[in-house]
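Q: What does the assembled structure look like for these inputs?
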Amino acid sequence: MKLFSSVNDVQDIKKLVASALELKASPYAHSDLGKNKTLGLVFMNPSLRTRLSTQKAALNLGMNVMVMNMDKEGWALETQDGVIMNGTTVEHIREAAAVMGEYCDILGLRSFPKLQNREEDYNEEFFNKFVKFCGVPVVSLESATRHPLQSLADLITIVETWKQPIPNPSQREGSNISHNPAEWQVSPTGGDLEGAVLPKVVLAWAPHIKPLPQAVPNSFAEWMCKAQAEGMVDFTIAQPAGFELEESFTSGAKISYNLDEAIANADYVYVKNWSSYKDYGKLLDFPEGWMMNNEKLKLTSNAKVMHCLPVRRDLELASEILDGPNSLVIHEAGNRLWSAQAVLKAMLEEL
Amino acid sequence: MKLFSSVNDVQDIKKLVASALELKASPYAHSDLGKNKTLGLVFMNPSLRTRLSTQKAALNLGMNVMVMNMDKEGWALETQDGVIMNGTTVEHIREAAAVMGEYCDILGLRSFPKLQNREEDYNEEFFNKFVKFCGVPVVSLESATRHPLQSLADLITIVETWKQPIPNPSQREGSNISHNPAEWQVSPTGGDLEGAVLPKVVLAWAPHIKPLPQAVPNSFAEWMCKAQAEGMVDFTIAQPAGFELEESFTSGAKISYNLDEAIANADYVYVKNWSSYKDYGKLLDFPEGWMMNNEKLKLTSNAKVMHCLPVRRDLELASEILDGPNSLVIHEAGNRLWSAQAVLKAMLEEL
Amino acid sequence: MKLFSSVNDVQDIKKLVASALELKASPYAHSDLGKNKTLGLVFMNPSLRTRLSTQKAALNLGMNVMVMNMDKEGWALETQDGVIMNGTTVEHIREAAAVMGEYCDILGLRSFPKLQNREEDYNEEFFNKFVKFCGVPVVSLESATRHPLQSLADLITIVETWKQPIPNPSQREGSNISHNPAEWQVSPTGGDLEGAVLPKVVLAWAPHIKPLPQAVPNSFAEWMCKAQAEGMVDFTIAQPAGFELEESFTSGAKISYNLDEAIANADYVYVKNWSSYKDYGKLLDFPEGWMMNNEKLKLTSNAKVMHCLPVRRDLELASEILDGPNSLVIHEAGNRLWSAQAVLKAMLEEL
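A:
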C-alpha cells in the first residue's frame, strides 16, 4: 500500500480486518519488518488517540517514530502556488513535505478542514499536496473529509464483537485487566461475517455545541457502504434534515430522518455529531431527541454503542450509556492500535 | 508495584533505595525487562527533570516511551461526573485515561494543584480518577500534593553521600567528567544506614515571589518521616508561622520556627519554598532571614545543601552555596534517573 | 569530537565530508555505536529540518533521542550571573544545562540570536554557557551566529554534485523514488575535489520582509573560506552595501556588491537573506534586482541553486528556480541527515 487516505485505497477490506485481528493476537510477530524504517507523524491539529495508537503500532513493528506538531513546533505553511510569500506563511508545502520525505520512510499527516470553503476542504488540497510532494507513502491521520484509521478500527470492532459477549466496561476500573493483547478476544469468524446474519449498523447524528467536521461520519459511511456491498453489514444513516452527508460517501446506505425508526432492532449504533454539508460548516438548528440514552437503547436489539471519541458526555451521548454495559467506546479506541498496525504493515511490505 | 504515588505505596524503602543504587552501578543490566513494553508520560503541566529522567530510565530498561503534553498537544479534560459537557472541556477523564491505558503498559502522570480549593487538591481528584480509569499501573510525576520520584531521589542522595566525600561541583564545568554511571560513587552502606550515626536532615522553608504547591515538601516530609521511623535519618522541619504543612505528612518530625536553631549541626539542609496550607495557596508575609547562604552554613555540620530544582538564585538559595562545594543539587537531580528506574523496574516485574 | 559549533571544531573537513558520504552509502553500518547512548535535543526556537534530520541521524547510529522544546515545554532560563531571580526567569542556565547533562551523553542545542544586542549575540553567551555547564559534548543545532550542521550539509552537497548530473526535481512528485540511501549518488571524488577544476561558489544575499539572523551566511562563509583554503572551491560573497558580514567569517572570500557580476560563470549560487551586521539586526533598504530567477541564472555556468530552507517563494528566490532543474534545495536538505550523522559518529567515537 502506497497511500491510505480512504476505503478506496484498500484492495480487500476483509483481508485488512483479518490482518488487524492477527496482529492483535500477535502484536510483535512482525517486529523485524520495520527495522531501520522511520515513521514521521505530522500534526497540523491536536491529537490523542491517533498519535498514541499510531506511534505504538509503529513501535510494535520495530519502526522508529518521529512526531512533529507543526502547529506548535513549526510554522505556518503556504499551500497556494504562484503567490509571493511576503505574508505570514514561512514555508511552502512543496518544500516542507519534500523535506520530511527525505528523513522518513512513511509519513502520517493530520490536517483538519477549515470549514469555511467547502470546495477547498473537499478537494483535500492540503492533504493531496502533501502526498504529491513528500515522495513517500502517506497514511492519513484524519484529513479534511476522512478519518480512515478510525473507520478501519470501527469495522474491526464490529467484526470482532458481532455475536460475542460484550466486553465488561467495569473491568476498566480495576488494575488487573489483562493488557496482553494475545489474551484478548478474537471473533471466531476470523474477520469474515459472510454467511452469518448481518449486523444492523446505524450511524446516528448527535447534538453538539460546536460545528464539527464531517470527516468521521463521511469515512465511517464509506467504509460501511463498502462493507455492506461485501455482505458484511446492513447500514443505515440517521440525521435531522439539513445534515445530509455528501452523497458519494453514502451510496447504498438507507437514509432516515427519524432516529427512533432508524435504530429499531439495531445491533450497533455509531453516535457522532457533524456540521452541515449543504449549509457548509454550519451547526444548524436541530430538533430535540437526537441524543442516545438508555430509553432509546430499548428500541434497539440490545445494540452495542460506538463513538470515535472524544465525546461530550450528556450532550452527544448519555453518561448512562458510556458507563453502562453496551458501550464499546474504549474497546473501539483500543482497536485504533491494530487498525494502524495493519496499515503500516501493508505499507512496510511494499517499501 | 501497581501504583507509585506516595511513600505508602512502597513496601520497603531501604530495598528500593538499594535497587536504585544497583541500577546506578549497572544501568543496562535489565535492558530486556522492558522489551515490548510502553511507558506513556502524560503531562498536564511543564516538566524538565521529571520528563527527561523518567524517559531515560525507561529507555535504560528497554521500554518504549511516548510523551503526551496534554496541556499543549491535547485539550481540556473534564473531571466532574454528572455534568452536561457543553462548556470548554472536550473530553472526560474517564475516557481519556482509559484510552491511554489501551496503548500503554505503564502510565506516568503529572498534574499540579490549582491552589484554589484545598479540599479538591488534597483529595487528589484528578490523579486518583486517572488511576482509577486508566486500568494500568501509574507512576506519579508529581501530583497536587506529592512528588514521590523526587523524594525517592532525595533519599537515594542522602544514603549515597552520607559520610562520603562531597562531589566536586567544579567538575560540572569541565567536559571530561565521567558520565559512565558505573564509575559513579556508591555508598558502601549499600543503601542501609542502620548502625551508623544518623544524619541530621532539615527541611528548610525558603522565600519566593510566587505561591508554590506543597507537593515537594509534603512528599519529602513523608519520606523522611518514614526513613526516620526506619532508623535512617533524624528529621526536622523549619518554617515561618503560617507555613506549617498538613500534619499527616509530618508525623514524627521535629518542627521548628527558627531556621538558625533548626539547622544547627545539620548534615543535610533541604531548601524549598511552599505556600501556606492553612491559608490555602497564599504566599503570606514572611520574616527576613530565611534564605540559606554561606553565613548560615557555618551553623551546620558542614551540611550538604539540597534543592529539587528549578531554583531561583539569591531569592530561594544563595548563589554562593549553589556554586560552592556544599551543593548537592545537580547530583541530586542526576539521581532522579535511578529513582525512576527503580520504580519502573518494580512495576515491570509485576506486569 | 567534544564540541561541534563551528568549522574550527573540525580537524579535517575533507575527512568529515567523506565520512558523511560513506554514511549515506551505508546508513546503518554503525548502528551499534550508539547503543545505550542518549542524545538530548534542546530547542529554544522552532525547528523542522534540524530536529528531524538530527533525530534520524541518531537513530541510524542506534542512539536514543529525547527532544525538549524548552520554549514550549519548559520555562524561561536566566543567563546572567549575580542577579536576584525575582523576575520572569524560573531557572538559571547553570542548573538547567547541568541537569540535562546528567541524563544525556550528547546534547544538541538551538538558540537563536535576539538581534538586539550585537555583542551579546556575537559572544554566543547562551550557547557557550550551556556548553560550559552541561558537562557533555554539545552539537550546535544553530546558535546566535552559526549553523554548522547546515554548512557541513552544504559542503557535502557541493562535493557530491560537482560534475555530476543534476538530480531531477520532478522525481519528488512521484511516489516511486528510491529512498534507500544506498542507491543514492555518491561523488566518485570521494569527498575530495583536489586536482579537479574548482567549482565557483557564490553566496548571494536575497530580499526578505523580516530581519533574519546572520547565522546561516556566517557559517556558510566560514566553511567555504576553509574549503577554499583547502583547495576545494572558489568562493565569492555578494550583498548590497550595508549587509557585509562580520569579517572574521569571510576571510579569503571575494566580496562583491554587484549580484550579476558575482554570479557570472558561477557553478553554485547559495541564496540567503540576512539582516545587517553593521546596523545590527536591521533590515536596511536595499536596491532592486537581488532575487535569483531564471534570467539571472543565464549569467551563470548553469549553476546549481542552493538555499537552507525555509524559503519564501518569489520573495527570496523565484519559484521558477525552485521548481526547475537547477534547484538543489531538497537534495541539500536531505544531506542534513548525513551531516548530523557524521558529527554524531565522531562524537560517539570519543565518548
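Confidence is low (pLDDT under 50) at residues 169-191 of chain A.
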